Amino acid sequence: MNIHEYQAKQVLKEYGAPVAEGVAIFSADEAEAAAKSLPGPLWVVKSQIHAGGRGKGKFKELGPEAKGGVRLAFTLDEVKSHSADMLGNTLVTAQTGDAGKVVNRLYIEDGADIDRELYLSLLVDRTCGQVAFVASTEGGMDIEEVAHNTPELILTLPIDPLQGVTENKASALCDTLKLEGEARADGMKLFPILYKAFVEKDMALLEINPLIVMENGRLRVLDAKVSFDGNALFRHEDIVALRDKTEEDEKEIEASKHDLAYVALEGNIGCMVNGAGLAMATMDIIKLYGAEPANFLDVGGGATKEKVTSAFKIITSDPNVQGILVNIFGGIMRCDVIAEGVLAAVKEVGLQVPLVVRLEGTNVELGKKIISESGMNVIPADDLDDAAQKIVAAVKEVA
């Protein structure tokens, strides 16, 4: 689960991280009062969406010459003007895709005099099975280019969970970021704070880009991007309360109600599969034969008829879907349950696009019999390769 920048900063502030004062607003009418409550005389008006690259982004409605989604304001009139420009308009960044995201809230923050911009993040490093810091002196909007062109400028530092952030590890991070004086003292305090927050709140990612050294020599968290492990949210009611459903795909929200692992994609072939590995393989083979998957959908190992029906409804609610591939290997999941669920959904919502079903495993013959005797226009497949070729061909024929 993702949260907004201002929410992430509030979480980090509770742990003692140095962040600027700021106010979240939801209408342009609130902008002036928000700015007046901050020290000034420089303010930063920041679009709040679940995507990076806001500073370089462009608003669809404002034209290519308009400023991006993060703007400096030197007067109250500029704060109000920027707020009116951004709220309600669609910000397109490198991470949103062409559709962009509508800006429904802003964060007005007290400005800072920046001396240097640094990069710092924490993530789960699966190569070593530990939480790791990633640090670089090359912070800011071009960190992706740094990672691509000069990876030697980036340090990855795993943290032993039994020891935490030791003085030696914190010192190594300070050395990498070339921190001296008060900034180094701030860093020695900050790194254990961030690690504690990451672990205690079950974060999946904590990215600070940039972490800045101000002209007064102190450190400040200037931006913060945080996502949480969805499997651990039951332990954090305070974090769940921060969820902004307007930033999520409606189909993904519906899927979460039925405990379905669903991610919307941009292709035209809907997929319903059991098991994450098989789902990935299904998407890969669809691409191999020249088409694109419209979603990742794992119904899980113990799905019921009702759960399968819900999954099918979610797939068919996507207007981009021109064909559906059901690919089930029955272990714990029985093929007859899948067959009954698919047919129940077809009867309820109708079948307007080609449907290919490949079943294998527990009760496979019964599942195939249920489908063959249904009288519905379902295309059977013998294996995954056969299924992929059939659905791609069927979609191309319809198109």
From TrEMBL:
Gene Ontology CC terms: cytosol; succinate-CoA ligase complex
Q: Which InterPro entries match?
A: ATP-grasp, ATP-grasp_succ-CoA_synth-type, ATP_grasp_subdomain_1, Succ-CoA_synthase_bsu_CS, SUCC_ACL_C, Succ_CoA_ligase-like_bsu, Succinyl-CoA_synth-like
Top-rank lineage group of the source organism: Bacteria
- Gene Ontology BP annotations: succinyl-CoA metabolic process; tricarboxylic acid cycle
NCBIfam families registered for this protein in UniProt = PRK00696.1, sucCoAbeta
PANTHER family, sorted: SUCCINATE--COA LIGASE [GDP-FORMING] SUBUNIT BETA, MITOCHONDRIAL (PTHR11815:SF10), SUCCINYL-COA SYNTHETASE BETA CHAIN (PTHR11815)
Note the subunit structure: Heterotetramer of two alpha and two beta subunits.
Q: What is this protein called?
A: Succinate--CoA ligase [ADP-forming] subunit beta
> Source species, please?
Pseudovibrio axinellae
> What's the name of its gene?
sucC
